[in-house]
Each structure stands twice: as structure tokens, then as C-alpha cells.
Design brief:
The chain is of the alpha+beta class and 225 residues long. Helix content is 19%, strand content 34%. It contains four helices and 14 strands. The radius of gyration is 20 Å and the shape is elongated.
Length: 225
């Protein structure tokens, strides 16, 4: 399985170290040391796996794909959010364990408006408080003149948020755009919560770029006339 270039420093450095240790162990005749060395490297590499995925083509343009692999930990409706210009929003929060794929993907075709990094704490990402106080990076995306958000939130182990996006960058649905190294949380923030049909529930497993999290419902006929 391919490994993410976002983690080349970690898995590449571990690979070099494993090769050097293996060479030294072989020279000294310590063949028994090879197995644990390479098992440890495989464990590190697994954190940075980046599976090749085909974005579904049979879903509505109004649908939003999951921006991350993991488990839906919460669904909240709030009165205002920065990502929606201070308007009401619905937040779908996804917890990523150390066993999940950590590469983030765009939930829809959109243009990057801006990224807002906030320093913070490093609480366990499974707690509700961590979503409010942990280090985070909010990515605001323009989708047809309306803004949505994807927020990367660090965890107790995750101490590095990777996001190379810049304003004006165009993203395709399901396109990779960064990662949070090791356990963490990713949020999808959508406007018009009364018109959002959430397709998942807390506790459900989702896969980035594949699982439909939500979709806008058709406008009532009275609103169209």
C-alpha cells in the first residue's frame, strides 16, 4: 500500500534507521534482532498509509464526503460558526484512532478561501473538551458562493497538523489535502443546518473520500416560487 509523502520524514527516517540497525545486527550475527526492527518499522509505516481510492460518481452534487477515516464521535448544531460567516451550522465530528488512515480529503469540489491555525492544548481527542481547546486548523472552502469548513484538530499524541493549502487553491471532491499525524479529530462544518440531511450517526465508521456524511435537501416548492 502506498505511503503518504506527508509523513516521509517519519517513515523515511525510520526506514533509514532500520536499514542501519539491520546492517549492524547482520555484521554482528544478531539475526534475531531483524524481526523486531522491521516489525517496528511496519508499525510506523502503517500510520502513514495512503490507500488509493476511487471517489464515488453515483452521489448527488449536494452530497458531502467524509474528510477523514474514523468514527463519528458527535453531531452538533450551533447558532454561529466562523466557517459559515457567523451563520448557524451543523458540525459532524470524526475521531481518528492511531489505527485509522490519517490523510484528509476534500468533502466536495471547492476553492480554498483561507486557513486559520490556532495554537492550543493536546487533550485526548476522544473528549468533547478537546474539540474546543486543542490546537486546530480551520480550512474555509467556497462551494458555489457558499462557505463550508473542515477543521483539523490535534490530539494527545498528534502534535503536527499538515496542511499545505493556500487561498485560491481548487480542490476536487475526494482530493487529498493534508493529514494530522497520529490520533486526532476532523470536523465537517456545513451551513443551513435545517436543510442538511445527515447520513451518519455517532459511533458509525466512515472512510475519507468514500462515505457520504450529509447532503443538502431540496428547497421546498414555496421557496422556489
Amino acid at each position: 500500500m502506498p505511503l503518504s509523502l506527508y509523513g516521509i520524514r517519519e517513515w523515511g527516517g525510520a526506514l533509514l534507521g532500520s536499514l542501519l540497525i539491520s546492517a549492524a545486527a547482520a555484521w554482528m550475527g544478531w539475526w534475531w534482532a531483524l524481526a523486531p526492527v522491521w516489525l517496528a518499522w511496519l508499525g510506523i509505516a502503517a500510520f502513514f498509509r495512503d490507500p488509493i481510492r476511487s471517489v464515488p460518481t453515483d452521489v448527488s452534487e449536494s452530497a458531502f464526503l467524509s474528510p477523514a477515516d474514523g468514527t463519528v464521535s458527535a453531531i452538533e448544531r450551533i447558532d454561529a460558526h466562523e466557517a459559515t460567516g457567523g451563520a448557524p451550522a451543523v458540525i459532524i465530528r470524526i475521531f481518528l484512532s492511531v489505527l485509522d488512515v490519517h490523510v484528509n480529503r476534500s468533502p466536495c469540489a471547492a476553492t480554498v478561501v483561507r486557513c486559520h491555525h490556532r495554537p492550543g492544548r493536546y487533550l485526548d481527542a476522544r473528549t468533547a473538551e478537546s474539540a474546543r481547546v486543542n490546537e486546530s486548523n480551520l480550512i474555509i472552502l467556497d462551494r458555489g458562493g457558499e462557505t463550508i469548513g473542515v477543521r483539523q484538530v490535534s490530539g494527545a499524541i498528534a502534535r503536527r497538523i499538515v496542511c499545505p493549502l493556500t487561498p485560491g487553491r481548487k480542490l476536487e471532491r475526494g482530493e487529498r489535502f493534508g493529514m494530522i499525524k497520529f490520533g486526532s479529530t476532523t470536523e465537517l462544518i456545513l451551513p443551513r443546518p435545517d436543510e442538511v440531511a445527515v447520513q451518519v450517526r455517532p459511533g458509525e465508521k466512515v472512510r475519507g473520500g468514500l462515505t457520504v456524511l450529509a447532503a443538502f435537501t431540496p428547497a421546498p416548492l414555496d421557496d422556489v416560487l
